Amino acid sequence: MSDPTEANSTAGSAEAAGPGEPGGGTGGRRVRVVLVDDHRMFRTGVQAEIGQTEQTGVEVVGEAADVDQAVTVITATRPEVVLLDVHLPGGGGVEVLRRCAPLMADAEQPVRFLALSVSDAAEDVIGVIRGGARGYVTKTITGTDLVDSIFRVQEGDAVFSPRLAGFVLDAFASTDAPPVDEDLDRLTQREREVLRLIARGYAYKEIAKQLFISVKTVESHVSAVLRKLQLSNRHELTRWATARRLV
């Protein structure tokens, strides 16, 4: 997904040729969607890119910023597809899936979930797929591709960003449960996101921009990670993450 600050220009290109027909329009297709993400600016950007119903066929019927809000909105609106962030206050995307399991199982009007996250970590992908999500795409996806993914999920297809499908195939091909990493379990979901980006060499400002948080918040998360893992600096942190194949 494009940065929210670029949403208007991206949405404009979508108007020129919507996903339904070569010259624009949706071919009569419609899908009702709920956006679940704890960053208001990101939700605004997604709404700007995909929510012009006459051009995209997508009608955004609700938004939520945490687990409780998500369950309430989804239950009240009964959308066909939910765009679900993996890391949310109140238990994360997996908790939303657990509490919405009866809606997913409804044979007549199933609610289907498509994970939309900045994380491309194997454990995050596998966790939400095991929880019942029909697909997983990262926030680098374009607006046009996201609309296409939404319609495919509505129709019952499984959709993944490139390379993420391999995580799922490997996980479900193995009968062994993934080992528990007690050190990693000490970290919150947000701290894991910051850890991976630090280990990949991102500067604090770049991390702040990608996660839609302040630089000071990034610094606080890094300090918490170093303290919990008993590490001294980002170089030790990078080695720690690389050894666990988190990078």
Automatic annotation (TrEMBL):
Compositional bias segments (type: Low complexity): 9-19
The answer, when asked if DNA-binding is one of the entry's keywords, is yes
What does the UniProt keyword field contain? DNA-binding, Phosphoprotein, Transcription, Transcription regulation
**Swiss-Prot/TrEMBL GO biological process terms:** phosphorelay signal transduction system; regulation of DNA-templated transcription
Start and end residues of each stretch annotated as Disordered: 1-29
Q: Can you give the residue ranges of the Response regulatory domain?
A: 32-154
Decide whether keyword Transcription is in the record. yes
| InterPro entries in the cross-refs | CheY-like_superfamily, NreC/VraR/RcsB-like_REC, Sig_transdc_resp-reg_C-effctor, Sig_transdc_resp-reg_receiver, Tscrpt_reg_LuxR_C, WalR-like
Protein origin, superkingdom: Bacteria
User: Where is the PTM 4-aspartylphosphate found along the chain?
Assistant: D85
Q: Which residues form the HTH luxR-type domain?
A: 180-245
Q: Which Gene3D superfamilies match?
A: 3.40.50.2300
GO MF term list = DNA binding
Q: Which PANTHER family match?
A: NITRATE_NITRITE RESPONSE REGULATOR PROTEIN NARP (PTHR43214:SF41), TWO-COMPONENT RESPONSE REGULATOR (PTHR43214)
Give the protein name, as stated in the record: DNA-binding response regulator
Which source organism does the UniProt entry give?
Streptomyces swartbergensis
